[in-house]
DNA sequence: CATCGACATCGATCAATGTCGATGTCCGTC
DNA sequence: GACGGACATCGACATTGATCGATGTCGATG
C-alpha cells in the first residue's frame, strides 16, 4: 500500500511497514499482511540458509552457482527459492554477464529485526519502553 | 535439553539455537531446522496478530476470550493457531479456572530478534552494513 | 552461426496447512 | 447432579507450497 511511513525511512520495498515493535501495540491486520510475506519467505530451511549464505558470502553477494553446492536440491528448486526471497523483497537480483548475483537488502533485514527488538538505530530507548505516545 | 549452547544461555526451549546472527556465518542446516518452526509459526497473519495482541495486552498475557473479538475466525481456528504458537515455543499456556491464559516467551522473542540484528559484540559484519558502518 | 553453460519457467505431483462445524472435556454455578 | 460457558480436539475440505524433470532463454565462446 502506498502510505508514507512516518519516521524511519529506510527505503522499504512495497509492503514494508517498518518500525513495528510487535509488543508496543497490536499490529494491525494491514501491517501483518505487509510483513507476513517476508516471514513466509524465511520460514523454510532452504530459504533461511540461502539468505544466510548470501549475507555471509564474500562481499555480501553470491551467484546461484555459489549456492548450489550447499544443497541436495535441484537447480530449479534453488532458483525457485531465490525467486521467493526476491519477490518478498529480501534479496536484490543483479545479472552480470552469464551469472546472476543475489544481494540481501539491509532495509528488509532491519525491518524484520525491528519486529522483535526494541528499535535498534532510530528512536532508541523510549520506543519499546513505556513510551506513551 | 540435551545439548549445551556455548555462551548466551537465554533458557531457550527445545530447538532454540540462540545467538545466530544470520549474517555472521552461514547458518547450519541443523540451526535452520531449529529456528524455522518459530518462523513458520509467525508467518501467518492471524498468528502474528495473536502474538502481538498477547505481547501488547495488559500484563503481557491474554485469555482466548480476550483475543476472539479481534478476528473473524471461528473459535476452533483461533484455538488451533494458539496451539501452533505454543508448540513452537513462542507462547506459554496457563490454565486459571475456566480460562486459559497465553503469555509470550521473552527468550523466544530474543532468539528471533537475534537472527536479524547484528550481534552486540564482535565484528560488525560488513556484509549487512552499508547501514550501521 | 553452432554450441555450451548459467539460470529461469513450466507442468505435474504429493504433502502440509488454514478453515470450518460438530463434538468432547473441564470448571463453576444453580 | 444438571446446566452453561470456555476452550480443545476431531474429521473433512480446499488451498497452498515444495519438489522434480523437461524445456526455454540468454550470454559467451569457438
Largest sheet properties of chain A? 3 strands, antiparallel
Q: Class of the domain at 29-116 in chain A in CATH? A: Mainly Alpha
Uncertain residue ranges of chain A: 1-19, 119-133
The gyration radius over C-alpha positions of chain A equals 16 Å
* CATH homology superfamily name of the domain at 29-116 in chain A: Winged helix-like DNA-binding domain superfamily/Winged helix DNA-binding domain
CATH architecture of the domain at 29-116 in chain A: Orthogonal Bundle
Quick one: overall form of chain A? Answer: elongated
Secondary-structure class of chain A:
alpha+beta
The strand line-up of the biggest sheet of chain A is 1-3-2
Domain HTH arsR-type (chains A, B): 27-124
Protein name (chains A, B): HTH arsR-type domain-containing protein
Keywords (chains A, B): DNA-binding, Transcription, Transcription regulation
Pfam family, one (chains A, B): HTH_5
